Amino acid sequence: MYNGLTVESDKLKEECGVFGVYGKEGDGLARTTYYGLYALQHRGQESAGIAVARDGKIMHHKQMGLVSEVFDDVLLEELEGSIACGHVRYSTVGDSHVINAQPLVVKYRNGSLALAHNGNLVNAVHLRGQLEQEGVIFQTSVDSEVIANLVARKDKGDILEAVKETMNCIRGAYALIIMTSARLIGVRDPNGIRPLSLGIKDGRYMLSSESCAFDTVGAKLIRDIEPGEMVVIDGDGLQSFYSDGPRANRLCVFEFIYFGRPDSVMGGKNIYMSRRRAGANLFKEHPADADIVISVPDSGTAAAIGYSEASGIPFVEGLVKNRYVGRTFIQPKQRQREIGVALKLNVLEDMVKGKRVVMVDDSIIRGTTSRNLVRMLKNAGAVEVHFRVSSPPVQHPCYFGIDTPDRENLVGANFTVEEIRDKIEADSLGYLSLEGLIEAVGDCREYCHACFSGNYPI
Description:
Blueprint: E1 16-22, H1 29-39, E2 47-54, E3 57-64, H2 67-70, H3 73-78, E4 83-89, E5 104-108, E6 111-118, H4 124-133, H5 144-154, H6 159-169, E7 175-179, E8 184-188, E9 197-201, E10 204-208, H7 212-217, E11 220-224, E12 229-234, E13 237-242, H8 254-259, E14 265-266, E15 269-270, H9 271-285, E16 292-295, H10 301-311, E17 319-321, H11 334-339, E18 345-347, H12 349-352, E19 356-361, H13 368-379, E20 384-389, H14 411-414, H15 417-424, E21 428-431, H16 434-441, H17 450-453
Parallel strand pairs: 16-19, 19-20, 20-21
Antiparallel strand pairs: 1-4, 1-10, 2-3, 2-4, 5-6, 6-7, 7-8, 8-12, 9-10, 9-11, 12-13, 14-15, 17-18
Helix pairs in contact: 5-6, 9-10, 9-16
């Protein structure tokens, strides 16, 4: 194997993952939530937390670090309850500090609630200013606390009406799980930008950012929560309500490119198969005369297999990912947040030496990692490296829950494809078109693809 390379710093960062389950005390719901969060760990690695409802009260534990580092058997036994919700976080807004970890637990005149949020509000600053003028003191720097405060202030004895009114105030992307002492509530924004799904096991309803968490805990996916929908789970079963005003299905298309786990289903579409179709479309649009196809693991692998199948060029493992993570506790400091977990790729020299290589990745953000990968392959003896990307150029920042670099740092926003090819030192470069990407996903809905097109849904 040849050289090592840190790659995670040149990827868009995941957002957050939420999970919740309604049952009865003694069902081990905190442990179920723990396993659900473990399955969603790819969506956020900075902090984790679980809250449970027991005897009319809400107890919780949250800390910086991975799920397996934050919880142990003793804690999970102590967090026994009849309802549970959990959260894994990557900070797109707000400092990386334990005080910003979720679920947020708020005590107010009508009781307590726990809130887990995936997404970003575009009017959070305005709403925070209004609330502060009204005397609200904020403990965190996250917009999730704005949502929690709005629900608490609007609760005049009917929590469901308070959530509805809050939905009419907030603007942006949000998949919420709200837990009271007696209810589990799931909410999705009217554009459906961030994912949220409903599952069931042994009569117990569950909510999750992705269906892969249901598979992990032995539950069955029922359906996606619809845009603008609020589902309420309590002793009477499940009820569904919808927000006032227009609703659209603008699920973030990057879920299918990179964020979603390959075994998850969103919008009725299997993510792995969508990525394979994207790879096949990528070959149709940008064929290459080559000896082997390799991927940038793991997010580029399915697309590389699709490219190989469509082209007839054999797929081989040319890059090996070092999956050993070790201790990844992330302290609340800016520098460490930027570094994150350093994962390495190594070249299998015997596989690429003397070969014309097609290398498939899911995206190019800054371009630095792509250039280094090309150099590594050529240093290992590859005679040509043809870089293929299973998404369009990322040209615009995201304001809806993805940590995107400023536009001046997005290589796709500042250089032509040929200039990028020259910068990354590849023999050729081809991006999948937006039309090819949408066709690969296989649905006629209008996804949010603002990071490619600049067409923001809000």
